[in-house]
Specification:
By secondary structure, this protein is of the alpha/beta class. 57% of the residues lie in helices and 19% in strands. It is globular, with a radius of gyration of 20 Å. GO terms for molecular function: crossover junction DNA endonuclease activity; DNA binding; magnesium ion binding.
Amino acid sequence: MRVMGVDPGLTRCGLSVIEGGKGRQVIALDVDVVRTPSGDPLHRRLLVISDTVEYWMDTHKPDVIAIERVFSQQNVSTVMGTAQAGGVIALAAARRDIDVHFHTPSEVKAAVTGNGNADKAQVTAMVTRILALQTKPTPADAADALALAICHCWRAPMIARMAAAEALAAEQQRKYKATLKAKAKAAR
C-alpha cells in the first residue's frame, strides 16, 4: 500500500509518501515541506499547496491519503489555516478518487512511539528509526508527515476490518427490520 502522509499547514505543509510491506515494514519514498509566505493572500497560499499536492498525487500515485485531523488550539487563525489546507488536500484526493483518512495527533504519536503524548523530538527519533533513515527528517513537519503515513499504514488493516464489520452489522440490521416488517404485515 502506498500512503501519502500530510501534515497540513499554511506556512509549512509536510508531505510524505511511504510504501507499506508485510507486517510493519515501511519504506520512505519521498518527503518534503511546502512553504508559503505568511504575507501572501490566503487564496494564493492555498493555490501553492494545492498545486504541489496535486503534483505529488499525480507523480506518486498513492492508494490513500492520511491527513492530520485539526484539533483545537488557542490560536483560532492557525486552526482555520490548517483546516483550509487540509480541505484543499482532501478535495484534490477526491478528484482523483483517492481515499482520505484523518488521524489525530495523539493517534499518530501513539502508533509511532507508543505514547500519545510524545513530543516532537520523540516522534522524529522514532520515524528515523522505523524508516532506517540516515538523517532525521527536518523540519518537524516533514517528520510529522512521515509519522502520519506510518500510522495509517499500520492502522489500515484494523480500519478495513472495522469497516467490514460495520457493513455486515448494517446488512444484518436491514434484514432484521425487513423480517419484522414482513411479520407485522402478515399479522394484519
